[in-house]
Amino acid sequence: MNLPPELQHEVAARAPQPGFDAVTARADARRRRRRTTIASGIAGAVVVAGVAAVAGGSGGDGRTPEPASPAPSPWDGTSTPDDRLPSDVVAVLDDDQVQLWSVTGGEGGAEAALWRGCDDDPCQFALVTRDGDDVFGEKLGASYPRVSPVPGGWLVQDARGTFRISPAGERSEIVDTGPGGGDVMAGDTAVQTDDGWRLLRGDKLVPLPSDAPTAFVSGAYVTPDGGLVVAGSGQQGPEVVTVGPDGETTMSSWPDSDRTIVVAGNGEHVARVSLGDAPDGSIPVLDVEVSHDGGRAWVATVNLDTEGGDRVQDMSSLAVGADGTTYLTTATHHLVRIDDEGFATPVQLSAFDTGVFTSGDKVCLVGERGRYDALLCSPDGLTEWADQPLPGLG
């Protein structure tokens, strides 16, 4: 992503969702053509906290929106770095300019947080994983490392290469087989790498199949039985290609449309979000669709305001729960919950809600709390919430 260093941390901290860099890169190019600045465009898109707490009713089906979940109990975010961590990791967390770069869930309720400290030049990164009462942390060796959840832990890319790290800190090397056109197998995981989207198969990164969009890929997801949903741009414009386990291929396309599409999934449940690029520098949410059959059929979201001055915009993350519920965080409507029938309800848990992810039946969100922020988790679909320190904090 071609952003100035002073803005890259804002995008990454508030937009860790895979595929979002494609949106910002395209918005960057358009803004340069309009002779506007990145600072007024991207920074405004991902930094400014919204004030709208209720989604508009455009496209609604007459149902009464579900009540917003109650706010969690106050917590001032005054946790201190976990003293079980190595001293160089604690030093990053103690940094006067410490920032939460990203946070993701893992298998069995494990969590990982990527922290950035900039007291020193260059800035330093540290990865901390937490699995129950067990904590592991290490300093990473890259200006902008990449961490993605995968089976067995997290895929990490830094100056040392590409490897998988388990919640216990066990490391295994990952080999990239290079470019080409592969196929999809059950058990594959679609991951975004420094060289584009790949399929993680065991300890190897293999190419996406030739059915993938040709210009660029903005998001991909593999179902448990080996189906692939991949979004990007082809020769005719934005498209979403679904390749079933049996090889049957379907495609949705938007000829000459100015949009970027990102996808997320869980089991056979998949969500796709179309993002635009407004003249004022914001990134509006154009539409959200959900599928419960691996991307073969899609249901449009209702009760989501995608037009006018109060429209939903500046999405920072997207996640899908095991029950098919979709969650996205936005600058204008905070956390938006979309049920399995496509009905959207906004929920506000803090002044600035970012970084939603799911783990099993649990939904977690990064909420603004004091120096470090907090991890707010709900085990029952957003009815009750509990605050907890982020991985790395005691």
Descriptive notes:
This protein is mainly β. The chain contains four helices and 28 strands. It has helices at 5-14, 20-33, 38-47, 87-93; strands spanning 99-105, 111-117, 124-131, 134-140, 146-150, 153-158, 161-165, 171-173, 175-176, 189-193, 196-201, 204-206, 216-222, 228-234, 237-243, 249-253, 260-266, 269-275, 285-291, 299-300, 315-320, 326-330, 334-338, 344-347, 353-359, 362-367, 374-378, 386-388. The strands form seven sheets. Strands 1-2-3-4 form a four-stranded antiparallel β-sheet. Helix 1 (5-14) packs parallel to helix 3 (38-47). It is globular. The two termini are 34 Å apart. Mean pLDDT is 80; it is low at 1-18 and 29-75.
Attribute tags:
transmembrane, mainly beta, disordered N terminus, globular, 4-stranded antiparallel beta sheet, transmembrane helix, 394 residues, Exo-alpha-sialidase
Shape descriptor reads globular
Mean pLDDT: 80
Percent helix range: 10-25%
In the predicted model, the low-confidence regions spanning at least 5 consecutive residues are: 1-18, 29-75
Q: In order across it, which strands form the biggest sheet?
A: 1-2-3-4
Rg over CA atoms: 20 Å
Total number of helices = 4
SSE-based structural type: mainly beta
Total beta-strand segments: 28
Strand content: 35-45%
Straight-line N-to-C gap: 34 Å
The biggest sheet, with number of strands, parallel, antiparallel or mixed sense and barrel status, is: 4 strands, antiparallel
